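Lecture notes, unit on protein representations.

Consider one protein chain, 419 amino acids long.
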Amino acid sequence: MKKVGTILFLVAILSGFLLRFLSLGYMGIFDMTTYHEWGLNVLKEGLAKGYQGIYFPFQYQIFEAGAFLSLKLNTDFYIVYKLINLLFDTGNLIILYLIFKKINVPKEYLLIYWLHPWFLLMFSQGYIDFQFTFFILCFILFLLKATERNYLIAGIFLGFAFLMKPQVQVIVLSTFIYSLYIYFKEKDVRQFSMFIFPAILFIDYSAYFFFTTGNPFRLLRNYLDIGSALPLTANFLNGWFPVAYWLKEPDAAIWSVPDDINFFNMGFRTIAIATLLILIFLFISKIYNNRSDNSTNYNYYFLACFSTFIFPFIMTSAHENHLFLATVLLIPLLYKAKNPFIRISIHILLLLQFVNMYGYYGYGENKNFTMININYTYEIAFILSLIAVCAFTILLCYFLKKDYGFIVNMKHLDQNSYI
């Protein structure tokens, strides 16, 4: 019977590869054209001239590799970029297997990541979240055993992720706050070593721009300007969606409403940032008090999961793909959580992410075959956003609830007395 189960598991994994290969011929999201343009600019003019911001330099160099390969192989660029995604996607599957093994989650739960329509749609549409997710998963894997050596190694993966997409900033921020919290409680500085490589990498790229353009603050400015002139929401199903829906003009896009609106003399963005910081601090104080006395450190996994989970729900300008990493990290909780409301809420969020993205963009454009389109409207998205907020609230309460919820005494985790 065990052999049959193993065979079925391998068949499912191969099926996931097959579905991904079949979707290579789909053009995907229009952002892929922008990725290719950025890659071509860096390839032809160099990083100093080709770099335009929004994303960060290391991500641009991956785009450059995609542009180079598509020209060299004389192949449609989106196929090459998706193959690069497939490389990272496969890496994510392997690293998730190693993480699941360490925290005693059955390997069958990998199939949620590998076969769920939400993750398959993300791949078909060509979003690059698979790439920085790989580095964050490696970061988490090494910190499951938080030694001085592992702090340094984890920092390498954190550094590359930090130089890729803005979503990683919330992980760096929450991890740094947690490190400060440990220092003030214990006077321990070992955890700060994980920031050595990110700092070196950031300084290295800044020095490059200084020597090539004469501007030592070009990269720093891109990080600081990342939050300027943003919409209240950008198609993500959170609490800001209903607000934007009621504020927008009748025929305007949902993202036409800016986030610089004041509420009792406070901007929506300011309110969001303050709320985010408060929730992160509350969660840090909880996981610190529930640290395990065994050899496995779960806190950095929980911290990455929590921060990436609340970020798109709390912050303005969240896009339809911004919950991706959080949905990956929530998968183990489907096994560990005994409360059915937690499991149902996670499944609802996974389903809603799929419906929302498919409603806006479908499965992608294909020369030979077109998938079914649905009549998706802002009114439908409005209702789905309310459901998503309810699911988010349930999970948030269990994340933060004292002496219950997701975080209990970690020494019982391996015996599955988790919730």
